[in-house]
Structure formats: C-alpha cells, structure tokens
Recover the amino acids of this structure.
C-alpha cells in the first residue's frame, strides 16, 4: 500500500514536471527564457518550446504596437507664450533582451514611465525653439516628426521602437484663457468701432454729395425756369404790343376789363370815385371811349 502511494506520488511529480517543461508563445507575444535572471533564449516566433521545470523562468511581452498617452505638459515656446500640450505616442518592443535589461521586472509599466519622461523632454526641447504660431499651424507636422526622431534615438537604449508621436491638443493655460478672451474681445470691439466710424464717414460723404447734387439740380432747374419764364414774358409782351398796334381800341378794352377784374373783387367792393371818371367808360356806353 505504501509502495503504491509512493508510485502515485512519483507519477504525479512526473506529470507536473512534464507539464512545466513546455510553454507556448502566442503570435502576439515575444518571450525570454531566463536562468536565474539571466537571458538564455529570446523567442520571437510563435510555437511550443521546452524549458527546465522550476529552474527556467519565462517572461512574455506584448509584441503589438502599444499606446502611450502623456499627461498634459506646459511648455514655453520661443515667444514666451505658455501652452499646455497633450501628446501621445505609439511604440513597440523591438529587442526583448535589451528591453529586459533596461526595465527589469517592471516590464511594460516601467517602460511607459521611462518613455513618458523621454517624450516630455523632447516636447520641451523641440517646441521651446519655435514660436507658438508654428505649434498652432500646419508646421506642427514637421515638429512632431522631429520629436519622434529624437525620442526614437533615446528609446533604442530601452530596446523600444517609437512608431509615431502626435500632438492632440495645444491650448493656453486655464489662468490665461480669461485674459486672452478679454484681449480678443477688446480687439474685436475696437475693429467694430473702426468699421462703424468708417461707415459713418462714408455715409456722410454720400449724404453731402447727394445734398450738393440736389442744390445743383435745383439751381439749374430754377435757372432754366427763369429763362423760360423770361422768354414767355417777352413773347407775351411782344404779342400784346403786336395786338395793340393792330387794334388800339381792343387793347384799351382788354386793359379796362383787367382793371375791373382786379378792382371789383369780393373783398374790395367799395370804391370812391367820380361818376364821370373815364374808368367807367366801358360800363356806361356800348361804344366805350369811341362814343366819347
């Protein structure tokens, strides 16, 4: 009975040892086989591999492209206009052995901390050499390429390859936003006041030109009217003179009728005059002055 128990125990140990003698590397992973902390094998291809049970340690790392989001960083460009920059990077483990030597057992988490320090340093260095206008313009793509290249050189010591670096956001600090908005509002109000003043000036010029045109047009019309009126009066007098020359009697009769019309109006019906006056010749006689 005791011998059977020992045999069962030996078989169990053999099974456990057999199960611990193999490990699987996924196609999305890289693996290191360690012998008391020293790297004895780097596995970059997926498959089933052998190890010494309980003596070999297997460290696996993600072989995919990994994200790295930095914390918002305040930088000071060359024009001393502070900006809060939010960036991110994409990276992958290029050399697993070098990566293990650089970060030790901290693995991916430790690498992220060191990469973040590298990226922040390069952000400050590259963005600190240019004006804020370049950071906020299309030149940002060139600056991101410079940051990526410089960060990539330093990241090689970690066994890491930086694929890309991008700036997500570049804004003014919160404490500067209110002052900036007020300055922008004052500038817009000044521009609006200038536009209103120019509009009023243009309106005044148009109004003055219109008034001048009215005066000139009215004066020309009055001048033309006076000329026409003078010509008409001259023509009328000429007709009167011609008519008088042709028939003096009729002209005297016409002048008497006009005098009666002007004298005998509704508000002037009282007249003090001698009945024998020549004024009434055409009222007293059918023949008028000729009868006299």
């Amino acid at each position: 009975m005791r011998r059977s128990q020992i045999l069962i125990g030996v078989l169990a140990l053999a099974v456990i040892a057999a199960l611990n003698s193999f490990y699987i590397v996924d196609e999305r992973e890289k693996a290191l086989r360690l012998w008391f902390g020293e790297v004895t094998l780097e596995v970059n291809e997926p498959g089933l591999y052998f190890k010494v049970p309980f003596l070999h340690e297997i460290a696996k790392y993600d072989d995919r492209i990994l994200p790295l989001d930095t914390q918002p960083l305040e930088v000071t460009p060359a024009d001393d206009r502070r900006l809060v920059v939010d960036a991110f990077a994409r990276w992958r483990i290029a050399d697993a052995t070098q990566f293990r030597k650089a970060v030790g057992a901290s693995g991916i988490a430790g690498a992220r901390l060191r990469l973040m320090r590298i990226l922040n340093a390069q952000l400050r260095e590259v963005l600190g050499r240019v004006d804020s206008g370049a950071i906020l313009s299309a030149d940002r793509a060139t600056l991101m390429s410079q940051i990526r290249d410089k960060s990539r050189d330093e990241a090689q010591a970690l066994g890491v390859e930086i694929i890309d670096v991008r700036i997500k956001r570049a804004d003014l600090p919160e404490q500067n936003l209110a002052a900036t908005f007020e300055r922008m509002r004052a500038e817009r109000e000044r521009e609006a006041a200038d536009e209103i003043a120019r509009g009023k000036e243009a309106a005044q010029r148009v109004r003055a030109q219109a008034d001048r045109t009215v005066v000139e047009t009215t004066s020309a019309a009055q001048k033309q009217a006076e000329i026409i009126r003078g010509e008409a009066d001259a023509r009328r007098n000429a007709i009167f003179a011609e008519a008088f020359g042709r028939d003096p009697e009729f002209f005297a009769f016409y002048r008497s009728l006009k005098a009666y019309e002007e004298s005998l109006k509704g508000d002037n019906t009282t007249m003090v005059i001698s009945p024998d006056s020549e004024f009434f010749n055409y009222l007293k006689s059918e023949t008028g002055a000729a009868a006299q």
Observations:
- Strands lie at 22-25, 29-35, 38-43, 47-50, 56-62, 66-69, 73-75, 83-93, 160-171.
